Amino acid sequence: MTQHPHPNLGTPSKLAAGGVRIVALGGISEIGRNMTVYETNGKLLIVDCGVLFPEDNQPGIDLILPDFSYIRDRLADVVAIFLTHGHEDHIGAVPYLLRERGDIPVYGSALTIALIAAKCKEHRISPLMREVREDMREDVGPFELEFIAVNHSIPDALAVAIHTPAGTILHTGDFKMDQLPLDGRITDLRTFARLGEEGVDLFLVDSTNADVPGFTPSEREIMPALNRVISSTKRRVIVASFSSHVHRVQQVIDTAALHNRKVAFIGRSMIRNMKIAQEMGYLTVPSGILFDARELENYDDNVVLICTGSQGEPMAALSRMANGDHQIRVGEGDTVILASSLIPGNENSVFRIINELTRWGAKVVHKANAMVHVSGHAAAGELLYCYNIVKPKYALPVHGEWRHLKANAELAIESGVPRENAFIIENGIVIDLIDHHAEVVGAVPCGFVYVDGGSVGDITESSLKDRRILGEEGFISVIVVIESQTGKIVAGPDIHARGFNEDIALFDEVKGQIEKALAAAVAEGVNGTHQLSQVVRRTIGGWVGQKHRRRPMIVPVVIEV
């Protein structure tokens, strides 16, 4: 197994003529931010361009984007962005890339294109759209793309085969192999097999469920649990789901109709996406079942409300209901169904919401206590099927954290891929495919780009570190006024604390130490407010560290008069 977790890899040399270069700028060793750049003959193809959602140790961050710096100087060479499907972790960063060059053609299936168009409209961007569908082939610059139907938790997902003189690459996107999907559109293993016969050099495979044995259950298998929960609920049923999970919403609507319950969508993205899905025929809604959530008081409890917030997102509808600051008050007799997975890093937020909803008196049904969710990703059994059908020369696990990538690589090896041909890499590591031979050739800088309110990329790791210190250790400011000639203290030290022990008397003993340290520094010829403020910082920092075992943020201000 070719493993490159901590590369001391240099910058790759120039790509050989006729070769293909593959660089993931996100989506490897993480769940989200999927973005892979393919290069041949001086042209670039981007597959997916998604966002990652922040964790608890990234305070104040709204979204995390892929790092575009690798392609920023070469945006003119980008021939297309191809989007495998319409989930946020695959399309959410497209508007941010189009801000840098607005006329890159965006390829995708009908639903994917509709979802990205709506997203771009919110950013006041009108992208160049190219709608494609399975079984189509399209020449895009020097790349010949072949689109293949795959089944996922959103309709209209596509894998892509990238045909080049250097070899054929098959990129699955997110997929599973539900044999009885709600829309009847199964993963096209016949085309996977044909490609395998023709020869697949590099197989990029979804790893999200590679460490789960067996097969992912069919979407239909959640119907009995939904039916049971909805039929046994006395009052309202609230279902939280991803705002793009059309299949899940379809099942909830069908079950609600069985029990003569009216349905309303709650949450801006849920209302927008389901309107699109309904208009395009991906969502079938019986007439008269939908109502506007703003008119909820005109209806009795015989309703099902479908909302956003299944990952504990603080601003989403479910989180606000749990906090009691939403117009919908959850209480005794209500049932809340969390019809989604737990994305790693979101566990604490989700459990907090479950606790709060339970405290209001609601019954909370989730993946751990009922069959109300099945994954959208292929488990180990399905992946083995794919490896055996495709018989790739090289395997590159993508879309997953380390444990998923490793499990996926081991499956590839079990199926016959030579150990040295199964790559486990990180974002930014460069693989070249030259004349059907692939190898790691270097690495390019690849960091996190944080979206914080209106700013993109202004927040750095060091400012996040400052936020963490402020949140965990507190803040102390020290103001001292000294006479410029003698260094004598004229006023202060005036000490203020926030998020630390705020008892003013606590600092009395350190004030004397600060005075002594300043006097000694001036006597040794130290002058200038910056140097003297560092003396103050060291003195109070040392005292706080020894006495209180804390490292708050210290802001010293020395003023000369």
What does this structure look like?
- This protein is an alpha/beta fold.
- Helix content is 29%, strand content 24%.
- It has 15 helices and 27 strands.
- The strands form six sheets. An eight-stranded mixed β-sheet has the order 8-7-6-4-3-2-21-22.
- β17, α10 and β18 form a beta-alpha-beta unit.
- α11 crosses α12.
- The longest helix is centred in the C-terminal third of the chain and has 20 residues.
- It starts with a strand and ends with a strand.
- The mean pLDDT is 86.
- Based on the structure, what is the oligomeric state of the protein chains? single chain
Strand order of the largest sheet: 8-7-6-4-3-2-21-22
- Count of helices? 15
Spans of at least 5 consecutive residues with low confidence: none
Q: Note the beta-strand portion.
A: 15-25%
Share in helix: 25-40%
Number of strands: 27
The structure class reads alpha/beta
Compute the average pLDDT.
86
Distance between the termini: 67 Å
Rg for CA atoms = 28 Å
Q: Report on the biggest sheet.
A: 8 strands, mixed
Shape: globular
Name its key features.
561 residues; alpha/beta; 6-stranded mixed sheet; 27 strands
